[in-house]
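Sample pair:
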Amino acid sequence: MHEVIVVAEKEESYNLNGVEPRQYQLNIAKESIGKNSLVVLPTGLGKTIIAAMLASKAMENGRKVILVAPTRPLVDQH
C-alpha cells in the first residue's frame, strides 16, 4: 500500500503499510529531508515512523538506506 500525505502544500508519499503518521512526525520528517538529523523523542512517540518516512523518500531518490538497532528485541519489534 502506498499512501499519499500532503505536507505543506507539497505532496509527499510514504509507504508506511497503513500507519497514519501524526502531524508532528510529518513536520519532523519534512524538516529532516536531505539533512543530517538527530531526532530525540521519548519512547513511543514514533521515531521509527519518522525514520521509515525518511528512508522511503531516500530510496525513491535512488539512495541506499540501512537501519540498525542495538539489540535483537528492538529489531524484532519492527
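Strands lie at 3-7, 10-14.
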